[in-house]
Design a protein that fits this description.
It is a single chain. The termini are far apart. This protein has about 190 residues and is α+β, with helices and mostly antiparallel strands. It is built from three helices and eight strands.
């Protein structure tokens, strides 16, 4: 056996030992090693890593959310928010110059120069709702379906554990200077 072949075999054996001692399993397969001109040089044991993954602990299930269900839930949520923001703007005297616009999955709530603009929009590729708040900044919400019905649930920001409607409840109450009911809107309450 040539010196190069012995070094490669020793290196591969060392790599296999390291893989086996790690937290993932190793499947070893005998594959021919080929040169650039596609001639078989020799066979060697080459490791193929297969990672062991823990059981799914992510309660969000956003990857499993069906696109049709996502679109329906997202539309219900955004339309409910649009109607509620319209009512709030009309019934709040100091927000008479405010403007609410909903088009193509984008809800824009301009509350004037003093309070800024909220933009809430669907992100279909990610199956998320994104919020841009003048108070708390940008956030991305995942839908957490109810155990009983996949079309019911709430929108959760994974990084702080606060739902979309809870955040709006907190921020908009300070702007309109009275109690608001965002939690009563479609997909507004934790289930």
């Amino acid at each position: 056996m040539s010196l190069i072949l012995r070094r490669k075999t020793k290196l591969i054996a060392s790599a296999i030992a390291q893989f086996r001692s790690a937290q993932y399993s190793v499947r070893v397969s005998h594959l021919p090693v080929r040169c650039l001109d596609q001639q078989i040089v020799h066979s060697a044991c080459l490791p193929h890593r297969t990672y062991c993954t823990p059981p799914r602990t992510d309660p969000l299930g956003s990857a499993l959310l069906d696109l049709v269900v996502y679109e329906a839930v997202c539309s219900d949520t955004l339309e409910g928010l649009c109607e509620y923001f319209d009512d709030l703007v009309e019934s709040t005297p100091h927000l008479k110059s405010a403007d609410v616009n909903y088009s193509d999955g984008v809800l824009t709530v301009n509350l004037g120069n003093t309070h800024g603009t909220y933009v809430i929009n669907r992100q279909s590729p990610n199956r998320q709702i994104w919020l841009s708040s003048p108070t708390s900044g940008p956030k991305r919400y995942d839908f957490v379906p109810s155990n009983k019905d996949a079309s019911e649930g709430y929108w959760l920001y994974k990084h702080d554990g606060i739902t979309l409607h809870e955040l709006l409840q907190k921020e908009i109450r300070l702007i309109v200077k009275r109690e608001v009911e965002f939690l009563n809107l479609p997909n507004g309450r934790r289930t």
